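Hello again,

I reread your note about wanting to compare the complex against the isolated chains. To keep things tidy I'm splitting this into two emails, and this first one only covers the full assembly. Below are the input lines as submitted, including protein chains and any nucleic acid or small-molecule components. They are followed by the predicted structure of everything together. The single-chain runs will come separately.
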Amino acid sequence: MKAYISSAITISPQKTFKNPLFLDEVEVYTDNRLTCIEPDYSEAIDPRLIRRMSRIIKMSVASALACLKEAAVAIPDAIVTGTAYGCLEDTSVFLSNMIEYSEEPITPTAFVQSTHNTIGAQVALLIKCRQYNNTFVSGGASFENALLDAMMLLAENDNSNVLVGGMDEITDMSHIVLSRMGLYKRKPASNLDLFKTASKGTINGEGAAFFLLANKPSSRDLACVDAVTTFYKPTDITETANYIKTFLTTRAINCSDIDLLITGNNGDTKNDEIYAQIQTSVLADIPSVNYKHLCGEYPTSTAFAVWLGSNIIKNNAIPDALNFKPISKSKINKVLIYNHYQNTYHSLILLSSC
Amino acid sequence: MDKLIADLKEQIAAQLKIKNIEPSDIGDDEPLFGDNLGLDSLDVLELIVLLKQNYKLKVSNAEDGPKVFQSVRTMAEFITANQTQNV
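Full-complex prediction:
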């Protein structure tokens, strides 16, 4: 069953929030950390409530509320979120406090706000939504699982619309820890050159993106989500190719049907080798673009990719920010997003025009 | 007492992350809960922890809570009375 994307809002390291122009310029970073460009939240959230919210909560709540507003929906039938790290800043605060105060009683707010489902709950409280509310915490497949749940709710229940979001944040602590694990490039380079430097590591990223999915079309739809699938830890490239082939054949889709492939290349040689192999085999000859030079690498970056893909379909244009050579097709009807997170969580998301 | 009240205002503003209000703008006798500062039940827990962490004091009788946390002055009076007792 199709899910119609009535609205898509993201706060990202690019000027994407409340910007009527679709990626008209690229924000350039020369560090290995891409931080979100945050709006003035006082316009979106009651200032009395902001004081307790960490950065990821503010980014997510502002995106969610803007998404509902854009779709002209006051209360959705369900709220589903996906996050790998949850509210990491608050987690860091209360764990640090536990150590600092020798496990004596500590301030409750950081603990209360640190749980992964804080964002879904905050949005529900703000709009007084007492419907289904669920959060998926499954590493690099967190957003995809939220999306799958939303699509199943639309297909199998009476839900007419679902608010679905994916979000993760960088904190100073997480950046240090993940850097030690060798995830990021040691030599800072411009994000614009991410795919030019053949080296180990990527650039850290973050973002919050929300979508209002509906089971019926409307005049404001950006695109449709046709299908979502995930697979975990494929043993080799053949197994990866087989998963992708099965995804396409069960839906009777040929490569020639796909107008654009959005891949999760992140500038890490080993990581990107998988995309290179797939693009010379099962997904050969499909025009493709990368997106992680815009948002960085993080477990729920596919939420940014869905925002990007749905806007490409809606605008029928690929922004210059993606360094894309013009394609011969006059209409972009089908966009396939293929991403893997550390060759562990793989996902395919198929979008189409409505 | 004045010094303690001023310190408390700083600590409350920092602990509760009160924005748009300077610590000095909080009245000595202004009710902490209600419309003015907009504090709520979760903030009570924050204030209990504040007393424990900064002054090593515990509000042992729950019924005393509303009296102790009525205003910055009542908090200061509680601290003064109990720290003197402890000495």
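For quick reference: Residues 31 and 70 of chain B are 6 Å apart (CA to CA).

B.
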